[in-house]
Amino acid sequence: MASPNTISTERFTETHIYVNGQATYLFGPEGLRSINTNTGFGWATDPTAALDTQLTRAAAANIRQGAADAAAPVAQTFSVQSVLAGNTNTAGANRTFSGSRGTGTGVGGDIIFTVASPGSSGSTQNALATSFTLKGDAAKSAVFVGPVVFPSYTVATLPAAATYQYARAFVTDANATTFNSTVAGGGANKVPVWSDGTNWKIG
Questions:
Q1: Is 159 found in the same domain as 198?
Q2: Fewest CB within 10 A of the end CB: N or C in the chain?
Q3: pLDDT (0 to 100) of residue 13
Q4: Which residue, 112, 41, 49, 53, is CA-closest to 77?
């Protein structure tokens, strides 16, 4: 039996990493894998510090960012490499989320965002439910389960219509409510507006 915290090689095709006397990680033809469901991959500021960033297995086909569920869970952030400070006027990089690709007439997989809404008083975990879905259909539609909250502005603080063609927003000080008229401030009407690329229109 391998001693705690050792590496052993078997059949020259697999390498096991033992932690506290238990085979925990395996290097094999498929790469590195965790073979103990209670472990994951983590990072810390130095080798002796507690892990502050982790990837763990929550369930089959379910990677969890963070340690196992706890009474006081830690908020997590998943970020993209940014421009180093000191580089002037340099654009950041994009992040792309991709659904599963189909073939032929088969639709692509949806990208589904779920949340756990509050339930009745108790200590049972609340169930996850879909909040909105980016569809993998031909229209590439977005389906929202609840109300969509748009930003609100005074007319004077609306961004340039030319920059946000076809965008929607709300204003809180329109002086009229006439549909499809160019919005003007100075009133007390709360109305939805959209940009035609030149002006913000009521509607």
A1: yes
A2: N
A3: 62
A4: 53
| Residues near 2 by beta carbon (within 8 Å), at least 6 away in sequence | 8, 16, 18, 21, 23
Same domain flag for 140 and 175: no
Tell me whether residue 168 is exposed, middle or buried, using C-beta atoms within 10 angstroms of its C-beta: 0 to 12, 13 to 18, 19 or more: middle
Write down the pTM of the prediction: 0.76
In a domain, 170, yes or no: yes
Together in a domain, 127 and 163: no
Task: For 91-138, write each residue's pLDDT tens digit.
Answer: 999 999 999 999 999 999 999 999 999 999 999 999 999 999 999 999
CB 153 within 8 A of CB 183: no
Specify the number of domains making up the chain. 3
In angstroms, the CA 169 to CA 174 distance is 13
Task: Report, as ranges of residue numbers, the positions in the chain whose pLDDT lies below 70.
Answer: 1-16, 18-23, 25, 27, 30-39
CA distance 190 to 197: 21
For residues 157 and 189, membership in a common domain is answered with: yes
Asked whether residue 90 is domain-assigned, the answer is no
Q: At CB < 8 A and 24+ separation, what contacts does 36-44 make?
A: 38/68, 40/64, 40/67
Residue 38 · residue 44 · CB < 8 Å: no
Range of the domain at 61: 7-65
Indicate whether 124 belongs to any domain: yes
Bridge partners, residue 114, by sequence:
130
Residue at 99 is within a domain: no
How high is the pLDDT of residue 4? 52
Between CA 77 and CA 97 the distance in angstroms is: 15
